[in-house]
Structures are given as C-alpha cells and as structure tokens.
Amino acid sequence: MARYKGINQLSGLDRIIVALMIIIPTILVVWLVWLPAIGSVLLSFTNWNGIGPIGDAKWMGMKNYHDVVTIYPPFWPAVRHNLIWLAVTFLLATPFGMFLAVLLDKEMRGSRVYQTAFYLPVVLSLALVGFIWQLIYSRDQGLINGLTGSTIDWYGDPKYNLWSALIAACWRHTGYIMLLYLAGLKGVDVSLREAARVDGASEKQTFFKIVFPVLAPINIIVLVVSVIESLRAFDLVWVINKGRNGLELIATLVTQNIVGEASRIGFGSALATFMLLISSVFIVIYLRIVMKEQR
Amino acid sequence: MPRPATFEEYLASLVPPSVRGLDRRTLLTGGVALSALTLAGCGGSDSTTTSGSTGTASGSGGSTAAATGEVTLGSNQSDAVPKAAIQGVMDAFQKANSGLTVKVNTVDHNTFQENINNYLQGSPDDVFMWFAGYRMRFFASQGLAGDISDVWTGMQGLNDALKKSSTGDDGKQCFMPSTYYPWALFYRKSLWQEKGYEIPKTLDDLKTLGAKMKADGLAPIAFGDKDGWPAMGTFDAINMRVNGYDFHVNLMAGKEDWAGDKVKKTFDTWKGLLELHQPDSLGRTWQEAAQSLQQKKSGMYLLGMFVTQQFEKGAEQDDLDFFTFPEIDSAIGADAIEAPIDGYMMSASPKNDAGAKALLKYVGGAEAQGLAVKSDPSVIATNSGVDTSGYTALQKKAVEFVASAKSIAQFMDRDTRPDFASTVMIPAIQDFIKNPNDIDGLTKNIQAQKVSIFGS
Lengths: 295, 456
Prior knowledge:
The complex is a heterodimer of chains A (about 300) and B (about 450).
Chain A lengths: L11 H32 L19 H8 L4 H30 L6 H9 L6 H12 L5 H6 L12 H26 L3 H9 L4 H12 L1 H16 L3 H7 L8 H9 L6 H30 L1
Helix pairs in contact in A: 1-13, 2-13, 3-7, 3-10, 5-7, 5-11, 7-10, 10-13, 12-13
Chain B lengths: L6 H8 L2 H5 L2 H21 L24 E7 L4 H17 L3 E7 L2 H6 L1 H6 L5 E5 L2 H8 L7 H4 L7 H6 L10 E5 L2 E6 H7 L7 H13 L3 E4 L7 H14 L1 H8 L8 H14 L11 H9 L3 E7 L10 H4 L1 E4 L12 E3 L2 E6 L6 H11 L2 H9 L5 E2 L11 H12 L2 E3 L2 H4 L2 H17 L4 H16 L2
Parallel strand pairs in B: 1-2, 1-3, 6-7, 9-12
Antiparallel strand pairs in B: 3-10, 4-10, 4-11, 5-7, 5-8
C-alpha cells in the first residue's frame, strides 16, 4: 500500500464525492446556524414585530440594546442568574461528577448499580426533571414540606427558587459528567498507575499529579459541556414557571419576547445577541486553550 | 491464512473480515440510498407550516347564494368538554346546510394563541376562533382578518355593545361573538351563610369583611398569580372603580400616562388590599387558588366564571355565587365590569369565502350558541335569542349581570397590545406583589417601557 500523498491522488469520482461531503454539511451549517445568527443580530437593530415583510421594519439603531439594559427589569437579574448557574455548575456539579467517576473507577462491589443510579437522571428530559422535583418542592403537597412541616414555597419564593432549580439541574448534570469522566478514566493506561504505586504515591497524589494531566482532552470536553449546558439552561426553568419571579434567565427572556403573541422580534433579538456575546467569551477561551495545545 | 509478508499486511489481518468487508464505498452508497428513500417518503405528504392546520378546502368559491364545499375551522377548544360542544355545533350546521362540510382543526389552547402570528401569515383555516378586544383589532388592521360586515347585516339578537366590540379600527366588523363570561368576586353561599358574612358594597365594607374573615381563620381573598395573567383582573377591577371605565380603556390603548397620579392611586388602593389576599401567590396557580375556595379555606376569589370548572357539578357548583367588585369612588359607582368575549373571525383570503360567511352567520345565531353553552356552564351566550331556561342559576345571574352593566371591558391582555401585556405588565405586576412599597419606581418603569412599545 503506497503512502497517501494528497487529494491529487484521488480519481475524479472520488474528488466529487469528497467535495460533496464537505459542501453539503457546510451549506447546512451556514444556512441553519450562521445565517439565522447573523439575521438575529441584524434584526436586533430593528423593531420588527413578526408580522408583514421584514423590509417594513424600522431601523432603530441601538435603541433595543439601550432599552434592554436600562428599562427592562428582568434583564439584570437574568444575567445574574445565568452567571450563578454557570458558577454552580462549573464549581460544584462538575467536580462532584468527576469525584463520583473517580470513586466508581475503583470497581468496588455494586459499582454497576451506582453507575446506573447516577446516570438515570441524565436520560430524563429537563422538563420531566422539573416536574419530578415539583412533586418534591411543592408548597402544599410536596415531599420536603410534608416531611419537615415547613411552609417554604420552594419554587414560588424568589429567595429560594433559583437554588431549588439548580439542585434539580445539578442532579442531572452530575450524572452526565460522571459518565464522561468515567469513560476517560477507563482509558488511562494501567501501567501509569502501577508505576505510581510502585513509587509510593498516595491515592490523591496519583490522581492529581498523574491521572488528571493525562486526561487533559477529557477535561476540556467536560469543561465545555458544563459551560454550554449552563448557558443554555432553559427547559427546566420554563417548565417551572416560564422563567419569572426569581427564575429569569436570558434564554427564557428571549423566548417570552419572541415566541407567542408578544412577537417583539427586534427586542428579543437584542436579548439573544447578548446571550451570543456572553457565550462568545467562553468560546474564545476554549479555542485559545485548544489552539495552544495543538501548537 | 497465509503468513503476512509486510507490516501493513499484518495490521490488515488484525481487522476481522466482517468489519473489513464493509469498506467506505459501500457505506457511502448505502447511505445515499437510504436518504433517497426517506426524502421520497417525506416529499409525498404535504408539509404545512402551521400547527395543526392541514386545511386545503376544496371550496367552490362561488360568491353566489348556495355555498358548497368544505369550510375549515381552526379551533382552540382542546379540552374534552368544549371540543365536543364545538363538534355538536358543527354537526348541526352541516345538517342545516346540506352542501357544506366543516373540517375542524383543533389545536391545544395555549399553543394556538402562541402561534397565532405564524398561523395567520401562513395558510390559516377559513374561519378561526379568537377574542374580541385590541387583539382582534390588531389583526384586522394588519390585514390578517377578513371583513364580515355583510354577515352582520341582518344578524338578530346581538346588541349594539357587542357590535361595537366586534368592529375594527376601520369601522368594519371583523369578529363574530359566540360566548362570554363575566369576571366577579365568587364565593360559596354555604360558607357565608354559616359565618354570617354579607356582600360588601363599598371598599370599606370589603376591608371590614376581610378583617372578619381573617379573624375566622380564612384567607379573605384567594389569589394565585403563578401564570402572571390572573392578577391583571384585580388591576382592571380596581382601576375601573378608582378612575372610571373611560380612563381604563384609554390607559389600555396607550393613551394615558402610567406614571401619573391616577395609576399610582390604583396601585395604592391595591396595596391597601394586599394584606387580605392569600400570601405566596406567585407560586400558586389559579386552579390551586380556586381549590382553596372550594375547600372553604378562603372567603372569595376575583376570577372569571371559569372558576366553576374547579367545582364538582351539582351541589358544589350550585353553591357558588358572585357579586361585582365593590365601589370605591361613589362618583364612579360600580357599573363597569369585565366580560371577555370569545368568538370567530374569518381569515383574510379564505378558500371558501361563501362557506366561511355562512358558518360565521350560523355560529353567531341563537341555535348554535345554545348548543355551545349547553355543555359548558362556565360561559354564557352572546345572542339574546338563546333559550336561557336550561341555564344554571349562576349562568342566569351572569346574563343579568352583563345585561345590566353600563360598560364592559375585555381584560388587560385582550384590551392592550399583547407584547405590552405579556412582556411588561406580567413582570411588573409580579414585582408589585413582591414589593408593593415602590409604586413610584414601578409606574415610572412601566411608563418608560410603554413609550418604547407604543411609540408615545
């Protein structure tokens, strides 16, 4: 078998097939992802209300952005909640998932059972998770208030409901991270651990100094997944109370403004552009880490 | 198997033949074939844009006397009882008009409302259900609803107030009313008799009564604003009593200053009543609040007549009674009420114009409305020709209640722009309930957003 020397080596038919394999997905991505994103950003400078041709919409410059930041009361709480969501997911749920993975990697008795138990919430949709926890959190009929006799409205009181929602979301997120990390851990070369044991390293030292650096690609995936999941948080909160009263998130604000009769497309697009900008910060950080590695 | 001669051959031998057999080329051809099959399958069915509307009416389109063909109807009555009621009405219509058939496309109630913009701009059904008020006029002025003034000429039993509510900004009728229901303070007669409560006529009476109920261990006014819209009813009622019906209508139309003294007075009055409302209302749905009324844990509830749906048919529903929100300013009185009207509209270019108009004429008439309200005792018919002998006591009282009212409002989310109602007022009212002390800041913010949306 001769060494592959490049695309010039392929026959005509092969070249066409390769071209199609590149062009068709590119067209789909540009058409379904890039164009709508650019369209959203452009629409955010208009006051289009979803009815009639887009050409009828008036150009308003930065007015929508100005309104969002100054006179729209749910916006700043939403940003705060998104950042809290990100922090909790990234600093609590993800490390906890990794910790569970390390424990399960020990293959103790019943680890299969634990694995299934931890992973089961992941296969549930967030909407269903919201509903299940509603049965636990309900003020008058829920499990917590039934057992402890308190009358705290876990989902309705703005002091508590974000944290209640976060617990429900982390319940699911932890299992997801655990499985990703467990898969990574299983791929670690056994000889590395043996060598560490021979050298007299403790469990903690083995993990942090040897296994963790080796798992760098998995770490990056886990990081990215956590950040994306937290910035996208929407389903759970929408199912609880459509994202009001302490559960505002930028995604729910976008939906409230765009979907439905309200149809404030221009205004909602401005909110969506904010979400895009916040996500871009993290995407840039991620890309820099990945690019740095490849050099 | 012969011994591998080169390193490449050795590596190749490690791959089992079953896997090796499926090379890249066969995989590709298989994939192309599979996708071709699926695309062919999808292409067959006509894909439609909107939720539920598969309407292609084969209508003859004849604008002359005998309308024939199929008329499509977009219905949002997705619950079992109303759905069956609508089907009954359509069956009777088809029997009375032998050349016409009706195809009912039922969509879930909330989904229908949320997708209305896309629905009307896509391929809507010939006739669709909607609500009177600003929302109706908005669609008419955007050219998304058809003119049915010719259907209105000669309509019997629909009074002038209803005609006014069905008229668009251009003076033409675009709405055919069907049923409506009043908003009022509902209470259980048995509970009030037992405790010796009397119907309050003024705001002071209400406060005294509330204090008495609190002493008896009840929540005086049930309250559940998790969905955001129920509290709008309370705002509307207090605003109409404090500032009058005309001011309220202008405020909803965006012509008044939300940061002015009048609106502040409304919020102030509400603040004085908040302690009588059930606490923790933002986590409670209206159904749960109605259940607290049913369980005799609260004294009264300001809601639409659909509150009866939470009560069992029979003795429990008969135990319900209502009274209008008490007067606050004796110069204004208490003769303005809220009674949202549900009905039908015609789409801008129906496929079966004559058939659609025939259907609209029918559903506005006494026979159709009688059939519709028979199965649903939480609404009353708009046509005065409907036989009310089969009505429950509550329905009969509602008919009198609406007939004797001087002015009828439609409810905030139907009287004002939908984007203002849902994106500004819902969060604002919820903020007020959480913190009723900053009325100045709240009203200033509402006014700023109102200017941004209405333009002035």
